């Protein structure tokens, strides 16, 4: 089975595999299909799963975990790293704890390993679909909502907390008031310990982060400025859409059809997807990739026993850049969403 590196979050409470299985709903699948795919992912070696209330995948993930325990695929829930997210309709201080408790019920779990604020905005309770009208969108009260997130951690409902889709400006605002401060990066990323977990070899890196950020990142949206900012603040980044999110409302096939990535893949005997995932990994971030295809699930894990050359990395670094996930596309082209996009 693949050698999967891990990093340490929250003062060593739990290690997180650097590659996770995404469960977002594009293309839409029924709960049973999702559950079966997630069980296959556990069989393939995935131990990190990324869900969210808005994905409607918490329940099938919870059922997949229960089934994996019953089948003996895992010995305990503690072998897994589970991330979920606070949806924007619940982005009020007093609603954060009830929201995470609802997610835990959906997942049939007693705690999350990581809970994220999904977006840097608040939505009206009556929003049932997106895009929506401007009167349903509000600025996020970062200070008070983060206090609710900190309460989740204090209550033991989650091991770690973080944010998703935050710009440098929004992160600065959060860091200025957070009671749970981000820890600095305590090492250069060299290996210090290797251990065996069942049949899977796990490499643990001596990073120690209290704070985590999840953002879109791939070879065609490299987030260089944000990565540099987070590096200086000790914030760990997890990349979503590392393959361009083809088949979603915001994604396309530009990663898999990129000539430079295809040429590198051909020369190395790898797939274009593997080259993209390997590049993301080599930037020192973790990543979440979604595929319900059994063979591609396995291929996505086969990126840790080889590396890109300096020349190959330089070619990728010089690729033209374009952001895929825009607030204006999700919320509608309102002044507020355009302002959020301008911060990126």
Average pLDDT, rounded to a whole number, is 88
Main structural class: alpha/beta
**Number of H/I helices:** 12
How much helix, percentage-wise, in residues? 25-40%
Order of helices and strands: EEEHEHEHEEEHEHEEEHEHHEHHHH
Description:
The chain is globular, with a radius of gyration of 19 Å. Strands 3-4-5-6-9-12-13-14 form an eight-stranded parallel β-barrel, surrounded by five helices. Strands 2-1-11-10 form a four-stranded mixed beta sheet, with no helix packed on it. It has twelve helices and 14 strands. By secondary structure, the protein is an alpha/beta fold. 36% of the residues lie in helices and 20% in strands. The longest helix is centred in the first third of the chain and has 15 residues, at 93-107. The protein has helices at 31-44, 58-71, 93-107, 142-154, 168-175, 224-233, 259-268, 272-282, 294-301, 310-317, 327-331, 335-343, and strands at residues 4-9, 14-17, 19-22, 48-50, 81-86, 114-117, 121-123, 137-139, 161-164, 191-197, 200-209, 211-216, 236-240, 286-289. α2 (58-71) packs parallel to α3. β10 (191-197) and β11 (200-209) form a beta hairpin.
Write the layout of secondary structure elements.
Elements: E1 4-9, E2 14-17, E3 19-22, H1 31-44, E4 48-50, H2 58-71, E5 81-86, H3 93-107, E6 114-117, E7 121-123, E8 137-139, H4 142-154, E9 161-164, H5 168-175, E10 191-197, E11 200-209, E12 211-216, H6 224-233, E13 236-240, H7 259-268, H8 272-282, E14 286-289, H9 294-301, H10 310-317, H11 327-331, H12 335-343
Parallel strand pairs: 1-11, 3-4, 3-14, 4-5, 5-6, 6-9, 9-12, 12-13, 13-14
Antiparallel strand pairs: 1-2, 7-8, 10-11
Helix pairs in contact: 1-2, 2-3, 3-4, 7-8
